[in-house]
Amino acid sequence: MNDQLPGRHLPNSPFFVERAFLALQQFVHVEAVSGVMLLVVTASALLWANSPFAHSYHEVWNLPISFHFGGFVFVKSLHFWINDALMTIFFLVVGMEIRRELHEGALSRFDQAAVPVVAAVGGVVVPALIYLSLNTVAGRGQGWAIPTATDIAFAVGVLALLGRSIPAGIRVFLLALAIIDDIIAVLIIALFYTSGLDSSGFLVAALGVLLALGLQRLGFDSAFAYILPGVIVWAGFLMAGLHPTLAGVVLGLITPVRSAAPEIVPPVIRVETALHPWVAYAIMPLFALANAGIDLRNAKFADGAEFVALGIGLALCAGKPIGVIGAAWLAVRAGGCRLAPGVTWPGVCLIGLLAGIGFTMSIFIAMLAFTDERMLDAAKFGVLLGSLISVTLGLGWGAEYAQRHRDQ
What we know:
Layout: H1 15-49, H2 54-61, E1 64-69, E2 72-77, H3 78-104, H4 110-134, H5 152-161, H6 168-192, H7 199-218, H8 227-240, H9 246-253, H10 267-291, H11 305-334, H12 345-354, H13 360-369, H14 373-407
Antiparallel strand pairs: 1-2
């Protein structure tokens, strides 16, 4: 069976489409390896945080790192530089993925994007409702968005473990769903986890965006030329009260999708291809190492923290599949939408189970939602537990699905 993504060997297809499919194949490969790395790093963080050297785990991430420029001094912890600075590059790649898919990908045509879009919305609404049903008390309700996100690397990594007998259409559906999830997560962060906005910061960010667009207009092709505009946008978002990592999404969305000459690789593909391995193999594992370490030795979730953990865990492993599968079924049943060729309902069930793996973005939102350490630890525990159950269910169902597909 030919398991290649459609279009790779089409000699008459447009150059951008050819490059986009090649980029998508590389993306899937990198995410698969990254997912395995995240599993190893997460286990390492948990072991470190529960070892006799647990004190060093917290001391390392609290080390102050300063930035000096003349008389200006900016001092933040290593944890801040990882979560608020390096993760901006993660969001930059997310923004470019969205830009590419909207231009010439799974999200560029309504008939291709309709079912994943509806499924993604269902996969956000149902987990949020499950969480809120268990956490209506003030101080816990703000965690409703934590179980709404899907971790692309983990999900694709688990899918890769099931082998090449999984149809290519399933991988494309999962990627589209996860990318839409990312769009919704970015909007949630911008709308619900910001406060005390400062208009002067928006002016600074707008200056950075205009500078980036000006450089594009002048034909600057080197990525290094855009470091300064990127820093300005990042600083503007920080000043405005928005999470500075959102600067990466903005810059990714304005990355050009066309080149000056047809034989030149478009910037959105070239830059994403260059940055993606760094994000997958360095930034995301470092983020996991810095944030997944929960001390479980004397963990006693009380005063409502147990409901935070339970709500997140249940919302991920049950709410995500119910929301994704249910919304997709309703969309097709209502008419006007149909499953892509090669995608069957057992395959949609597999996607729904894998969508419950919420790690990087879920933990990221948890740190925005909770300042109380007990609640934050409970949220992280819920993310890890719900994701682990989703991995187990996904592998079990996926193995059976792959076997049936091979027998056909």
